[in-house]
């Protein structure tokens, strides 16, 4: 008799151990569901749900099975969506005129997924853990936000008197139809919390002028592009020059402008070609800055936008007096042979260089 009760006791303990080992839902955390994955049976089609008795024999084999938990508490999230009407900047003339051709929406969305669908998502390799489930719901929320915004935009363009607050939740959910891309997700709530609508009527009125605006803009872009292309086909050069001058404003202005005009003309330079102009002057030239003289005098090209710089020439004993030197850095055609210009006796400084004008 003792042996019988002993065997019965052992059998009861063993049964309790077997039951405890396979009893699965007790291992779940609150607001969670579980997916059982085992080496012998793969992914179990039955979800583990809190409060529902589930027992899996796969856990009887050590290291054979594991329980993957997923939070199934509804996810509440805020999403924004912004867009503009086609070619809005061109239609408005590309100016900051205060015209509103933009749409902006903020949505509050709450989503959930059932335990059964969690198992199916796992079987399809769409999720692998709780973090990937959260990302999956985030993607669904983005998709719903885009469809909802497009719905409001369409309604506002069809009816100028449209008011977003008149849209019912059920109508919005039905029009969104997220189930085409995310059939596993359930929308609990979706609400438009803030919105900004484009002035669609004004947009259509201005769009009549769009071809003219477009032609003007394209011409501007073409000019900019041609300038850039021209620079790409040119080489960077530095042209030297010098002129002797008396130390009075009239002579300095006349001589500086003559020197500059000859350098520009002989080397076929434009204002867009020139990178910078640098002057130096000997210490006996004191009444006027050559850069100022160039801006005040008459020149063959516009100089108001040029980068000009002036500094004093280093003092060298026995050096030529009353000399203004210039160096122009610019882009020039590949075929151009650089011509340096020396005037009013300054040719004595560099008789070895190209172009020389004698007094």
Report what the structure shows:
The protein is built from nine helices and eleven strands. With 359 residues, it is α+β, with helices and mostly antiparallel strands. The chain has three domains: 47 residues, no CATH class; 130 residues, Tetrahydropterin Synthase, Chain A (2-Layer Sandwich); 124 residues, RutC-like (60s Ribosomal Protein L30, Chain: A), CATH 3.30.1330.40. Helix 4 packs across helix 5. The chain is elongated. The N and C termini lie far apart (140 Å). The relative contact order is 0.09. The C terminus is likely disordered.
Q: What is the strand and helix layout of this fold?
A:
Layout: H1 2-22, E1 32-38, E2 42-43, E3 65-71, E4 75-84, H2 88-91, E5 102-113, H3 115-123, H4 130-158, H5 169-176, E6 185-196, H6 200-207, H7 210-232, E7 234-244, H8 249-266, E8 274-281, H9 290-296, E9 308-312, E10 323-333, E11 341-343
Parallel strand pairs: 7-11, 8-9
Antiparallel strand pairs: 1-2, 1-3, 4-5, 5-6, 7-10, 8-10
Helix pairs in contact: 4-5, 8-9
The helix tally amounts to: 9
Shape: elongated
Provide the structure class.
alpha+beta
User: How many structural units, i.e. domains?
Assistant: 3
Distance between the termini: 140 Å
Helical content, roughly? 25-40%
Q: What is the CATH level 1 assignment of the largest domain?
A: Alpha Beta
Spatial order of strands in the largest sheet: 9-8-10-7-11
Could you tell me the CATH topology label of the largest domain: Tetrahydropterin Synthase, Chain A
* Poorly predicted parts: 13-23, 354-359
């Amino acid at each position: 008799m003792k042996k019988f009760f002993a065997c019965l006791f052992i059998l009861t303990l063993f049964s309790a151990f077997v039951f405890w080992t396979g009893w699965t839902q007790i291992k779940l955390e609150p607001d969670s569901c579980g997916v059982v994955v085992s080496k012998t049976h793969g992914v179990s089609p039955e979800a583990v749900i809190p409060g529902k008795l589930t027992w899996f024999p796969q856990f009887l084999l050590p290291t054979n099975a594991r329980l993957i938990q997923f939070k199934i508490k509804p996810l509440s999230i805020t999403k924004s969506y912004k867009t503009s009407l086609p070619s809005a900047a061109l239609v408005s003339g590309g100016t900051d005129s205060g015209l509103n051709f933009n749409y902006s929406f903020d949505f509050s969305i709450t989503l959930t997924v059932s335990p059964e669908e969690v198992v199916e998502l796992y079987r399809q390799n769409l999720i692998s853990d709780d973090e990937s489930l959260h990302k999956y719901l985030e993607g669904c929320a983005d998709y719903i936000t885009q469809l909802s915004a497009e719905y409001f935009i369409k309604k506002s363009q069809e009816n100028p008197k449209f008011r977003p607050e008149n849209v019912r939740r059920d109508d919005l959910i039905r029009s969104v139809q997220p189930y085409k891309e995310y059939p596993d997700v359930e929308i609990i709530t979706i609400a438009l919390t803030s919105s900004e609508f484009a002035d669609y009527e004004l947009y259509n009125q201005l769009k009549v002028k769009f071809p003219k605006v477009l032609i003007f803009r394209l011409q501007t872009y073409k000019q900019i592009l041609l300038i850039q292309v021209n620079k790409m086909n040119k080489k960077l050069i530095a042209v030297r020059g010098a002129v002797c001058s008396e130390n009075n404003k009239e002579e300095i202005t006349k001589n500086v402008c003559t020197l500059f005009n000859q350098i520009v003309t002989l080397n076929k330079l434009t204002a867009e070609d020139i990178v910078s102009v640098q002057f130096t002057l000997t210490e006996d030239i004191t009444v006027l800055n050559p850069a100022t003289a160039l801006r005040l005098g008459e020149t063959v090209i516009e100089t108001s936008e040029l980068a000009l710089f002036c500094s004093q020439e280093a003092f060298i004993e026995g050096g030529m007096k009353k000399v203004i030197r210039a160096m122009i850095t610019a882009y020039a055609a590949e075929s151009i042979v650089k011509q340096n210009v020396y005037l009013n006796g300054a040719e004595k400084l560099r008789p070895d260089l190209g172009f020389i004008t004698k007094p």
